[in-house]
């Protein structure tokens, strides 16, 4: 379903304002609703030397959005039993500096590692091999101890890319192609630019002239920011975060990635970081995704998984309002065309748990177990979704009871009570 004309006009006005105010050679954007790219717009005719308005199939470098693919590859290894997120990095990269940091800390930028590798600015110089990268690593350059605070580390993602490559016996890029891009049909997401592709520029602050920026192979740092993509491909990728493709990653693992692990002190309580994902609190909603920047390029991708909407933005300048433009487009879409409530349909028959449905009491506190989208839902004073683990055994999926086991205690054929994390639930209140 296409957007109304007033919605499209408001979205385009925001794109135009960002391009003009930020002095961007070009900016490209798209919005997603219910898994489909429903609007695209571009402003600025200096994506490349030709002077044509860029389209949704023109490649731009996506910078740190690349990190989200690296994080997926790590979670895939975890889900396949190849590693634990609590593993020390040194278990998989023996002898390396920062080897006591965990995989989880690197994913969440909470390991206290320095932000950049030693040597020349890696984003604007030819990349080095992994051996060269690690030979220059020095723990004396750490930004602080692990788990003290959120401190963004590009270097950490270079290490994560090497870990998955060693575990799978293939290069990071080959794994990204095979295990993410191919299943999601992201055919225009590439390691090097493939025409049509934008030229990266910086804009001189006084003359307003364009200065071409180089684009090198990042080498061992490629898992932190190498890739190129398009609005159309990133729209497919954004849709994945709303409706996960199990071949790539389960819904449960996506939800785990989207849970806050570390907060960014610069953003107060509005922004935090999950496992490879930036999280923006947009009260009462939550946007997840990532920003990206490389010399000459800026990018943003954010989705609201509950409202099933999102936006992607690309620009070819070193500085400007491109990354934050994606959340702004999401807000405009939601304001002009609020998402419709999901259509109610009858629930499927439960494989187990039918006899748990109905009213329960925790002491004198009323609770209810019902079904929503085929999943048992405990609500009231204690709230969580419940996944079956076996006969008369369930596990909380979220909230305070996430990960806790619910045991069904029977007296013969009758349920005596439920026990979850020592909370006893009965069919009648105290004294009943």
Helices and strands in order:
Blueprint: H1 5-21, E1 27-33, E2 36-43, E3 60-61, H2 66-79, H3 89-92, H4 103-108, H5 130-135, H6 154-168, H7 172-181, E4 201-203, E5 210-212, H8 222-225, E6 228-229, H9 231-242, H10 251-257, E7 262-263, E8 271-273, E9 278-282, E10 285-294, E11 297-304, E12 309-315, H11 325-336, E13 358-362, E14 365-372, E15 375-380, E16 384-390, E17 393-396, E18 405-411, E19 414-420, E20 423-425
Antiparallel strand pairs: 1-2, 1-12, 3-6, 4-5, 7-8, 8-9, 9-10, 10-11, 11-12, 13-14, 14-15, 15-16, 16-17, 17-18, 18-19, 19-20
Helix pairs in contact: 1-11, 2-6, 2-7
Distance, first to last CA? 54 Å
Secondary-structure-derived class: alpha+beta
Mean pLDDT: 93
How much helical structure, as a percent, in the residues?
Answer: 10-25%
Strand arrangement in the largest pleated sheet: 2-1-12-11-10-9-8-7
Strand content bin:
15-25%
Radius of gyration: 24 Å
Tell me what you see in this structure.
- The structure is a single chain.
- This protein has an 8-stranded antiparallel beta sheet, sandwiched between helices.
- A hairpin with a 4-residue loop joins strand 11 and strand 12.
- The longest helix has 17 residues.
- It contains 11 helices and 20 strands.
- Helix 2 crosses helix 6.
- 25% of the residues lie in helices and 25% in strands.
- The model has no long low-confidence stretch (mean pLDDT 93).
- By secondary structure, it is α+β, with helices and mostly antiparallel strands.
Write a brief caption for the model.
The protein is an alpha+beta fold and 432 residues long.
């Amino acid at each position: 379903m296409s957007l109304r004309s007033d919605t499209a006009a408001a979205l385009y006005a925001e794109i135009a304002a960002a391009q003009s105010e930020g002095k961007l050679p070009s900016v490209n954007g798209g919005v997603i609703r219910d898994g489909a790219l429903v609007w695209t717009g571009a402003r600025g005719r200096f994506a490349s030397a030709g002077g044509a308005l860029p389209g949704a199939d023109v490649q731009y470098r996506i910078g740190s959005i690349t990190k989200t693919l690296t994080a997926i590859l790590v979670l895939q290894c975890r889900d396949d039993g190849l590693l634990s997120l609590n593993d020390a990095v040194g278990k998989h990269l023996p002898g390396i500096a920062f080897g006591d940091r965990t995989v989880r800390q690197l994913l969440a930028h909470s390991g206290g590692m320095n932000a950049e590798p030693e040597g020349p600015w890696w984003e604007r110089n030819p990349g080095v091999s992994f051996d060269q990268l690690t030979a220059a690593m020095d723990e004396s350059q750490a930004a602080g101890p692990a788990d003290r605070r959120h401190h963004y580390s590009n270097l950490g993602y270079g290490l994560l890319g090497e870990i998955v490559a060693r575990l799978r016996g293939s290069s990071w890029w080959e794994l990204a192609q095979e295990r993410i891009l191919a299943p999601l049909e992201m055919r225009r997401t590439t390691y090097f630019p493939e025409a049509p592709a934008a030229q990266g520029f910086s804009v001189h602050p006084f003359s307003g002239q364009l200065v071409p920026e180089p684009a090198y192979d990042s080498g061992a740092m490629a898992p932190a920011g190498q890739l190129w993509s398009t609005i159309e491909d990133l729209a497919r990728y954004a849709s994945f975060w709303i409706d996960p493709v199990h071949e790539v990653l389960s819904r449960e693992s996506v939800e785990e990635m989207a849970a806050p692990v570390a907060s960014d002190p610069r953003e107060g309580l509005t922004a935090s970081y999950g496992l490879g994902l930036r999280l923006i609190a947009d009260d009462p909603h939550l946007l997840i995704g990532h920003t990206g920047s490389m010399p000459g390029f800026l990018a943003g991708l954010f989705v609201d998984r509950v409202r099933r909407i999102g936006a992607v933005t690309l620009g070819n300048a070193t500085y400007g309002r491109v990354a934050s433009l994606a959340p702004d487009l999401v807000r405009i879409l939601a304001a002009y065309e609020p998402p419709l409530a999901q259509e109610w349909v009858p629930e499927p028959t439960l494989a187990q748990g039918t006899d748990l449905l109905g009213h329960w009491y925790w002491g004198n506190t009323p609770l209810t177990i019902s079904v929503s989208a085929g999943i048992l839902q405990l609500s009231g004073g204690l709230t969580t979704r419940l996944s079956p683990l076996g006969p008369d055994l369930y596990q909380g999926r979220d909230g305070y009871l996430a990960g806790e086991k619910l045991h069904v205690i029977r007296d013969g054929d009758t349920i005596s009570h439920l026990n979850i994390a020592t909370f006893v639930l009965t069919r009648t209140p105290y004294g009943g």
